[in-house]
Amino acid sequence: MAPVLILMGSQSDWPVMQHAAKMLKDLGVEWRAEVVSAHRTPDLLKSSMQQAEQDGVPVVIAGAGGAAHLPGMLAAYTAIPVLGVPVPSKQLKGLDSLLSIVQMPKGVAVGTLAIGQAGAANAGLLAAQIIGTTNADVRANVNAFRTAQRDKVMNGPDLELPDA
Questions:
Q1: Where, in this chain's numbering, is substrate bound (predicted)?
Q2: What residues pair up with 62 in beta bridges, in sequence order?
Q3: pLDDT given at position 41
Q4: Secondary structure, 3-state, the chain
Q5: Considering the chain, what is the average pLDDT of its residues?
Q6: Where are the domains of the chain?
Q7: pLDDT tens-digit profile of 128-152?
Q8: In angstroms, what CA-CA distances link 161 with 158, 164?
Q9: What is the pLDDT of residue 159?
Q10: 89 labelled as ligand-binding?
């Protein structure tokens, strides 16, 4: 299977988007990351999606900040599921990115995750879950991750009132 494709509009998005890569790695899913700007390299954006289709890429994770057109433009060029991660911006802290990604017109779907690192990590998890629908090993890894999450909560310290 081809690796999950992680795309971002700028190298400065990597500190957020690396959390998607880490989650995929932890769940045993191959990935590759590239910088493709919807505004500065539109021809590269189109050819990247054509290549992804030819390569059999199962899921694309796209992170973008500010105007955040990358996920929507990618989705316009492919039927591959696109998961959008709003990258925090300096001016509006990622709210602009979130609204740009989540408000797609009817007929162009982008699965939109939370702003920032948590959204990137969850994009990796969701991509693994999508792949897990046809790959038993990845599904087992996702189930083990969820069990570990549950156990961490269940085995946490007992809560007590402080001495008065």
A1: 10, 13, 40
A2: 7, 84
A3: 94
A4: CCCEEEEECCHHHHHHHHHHHHHHHHCCCCEEEEECCCCCCHHHHHHHHHHHHHHCCCCEEEEEECCCCHHHHHHHCCCCCEEEEEECCCCCCCHHHHHHHHCCCCCCCCEECCCCHHHHHHHHHHHHHHHHCCCHHHHHHHHHHHHHHHHHHHCCCCCCCCCC
A5: 95
A6: 4-155
A7: 999 999 999 999 999 999 999 999 9
A8: 10, 8
A9: 80
A10: no
Query: Which regions in the chain score pLDDT beneath 70?
Result: 164
Contact 116, 92 (CB under 8 A): no
Confirm if 6 and 17 have CB atoms less than 8 A apart.
Answer: yes
Alpha carbon 20 to its chain centroid, in Å, reads 6
Q: Which residues contact 34 (CB under 8 A, 6 or more apart)?
A: 5, 6, 7, 8, 48
Q: Which residue has the tokens 């779907």?
A: 109
Separation of alpha carbons 49 and 163, rounded Å: 61
CB 120 within 8 A of CB 63: yes
Which of 28, 9, 18 minimizes the C-alpha distance to 131? 28
| Per-residue pLDDT tens over the stretch 24-47 | 999 999 999 999 999 999 999 999
13 annotated as a binding-site residue? yes
pLDDT at 2: 86
Question: What CATH architecture is 4-155?
Answer: 3-Layer(aba) Sandwich (3.40)
